[in-house]
Fold:
Amino acid sequence: MLAATVARFSPDSPLDGLEVGERPEPEPRENWTTVRVRAATLNHHDLWSLRGVGLRPEQLPMILGTDAAGTAADGTPVLLHGVIGADGHGVGPLERRTLLSEHYPGTLAEYVSVPIHNLVPLPDGMSLEEAACLPTAWLTAYRMLFGAAGLAPGDRVLVQGAGGGVATAATVLGAAAGLEVTVTSRSAERRERALELGAAHAVETGARVPERVDAVIESVGQATWAHSVRSVRPGGTIVVCGATSGDAPPAELTRVFFNEIRVQGVTMGSRDDLAALVRFVDRTGVRPVIDSVVPLARVGEGLARLAAGEQTGKIVVLP
Structure:
């Protein structure tokens, strides 16, 4: 089968470690099933893997990808939950939580194997391309907003870095749930697009927000951390799911403890969270924002666009 793999680590130029070629199809495994991938999407996790973060040399070549929608063995359209081991299904009792493409081959391939429990049925009216956007960025944003931050209609939220997958998802989901969403971006075009997607306010990166917010959705890291700490109200929450600009900013500890700010980390969510997100999207009618679509054979083009930060929304890959 055709697959995109980490063939070698390339910390400074991640695409140099990418290979697209033939790989063996998944072997049968007890309590697991093989899904034919119809659509997958790209994440910064793929770029980190190509840099060598989270993988060891002896694991190579490793198939990339944490997101996918496809068809089960009986032809049913399904969505894949990309977290393996968190709920104990399909793994040994001592196995730690992992994501597809870390310990087990990922979704940027024609076929992928997952625990049977990781399949989520899809409702009518949702395309496989749209569904494939949900399991990583949209699931993470959903859990950040409504789980970790515990936001309710009318609350205020700041979303750092408009245009990224998590940021776009948080903007759309937050607006659909009645939150007052403020987004930041250096790009006027991206700020305007965020307003079209439902944001109430869009400001330049680092600019003063209209009012202090109840929570901040933080996936940028070093470049925006100080602004996040200054923008959240006393007793508010900063929810962190990534650090694309660097993971070691000055901690601002005096502001954190004096204002009793809570900092909460999030890595995706549970299968039940994903099923709830599917119901939310289905009932509200909101849909993931798709930036572009590339065939698997040219996945490098999509990864280059992601690495350059040129996308708004998700980049979809079709095997």
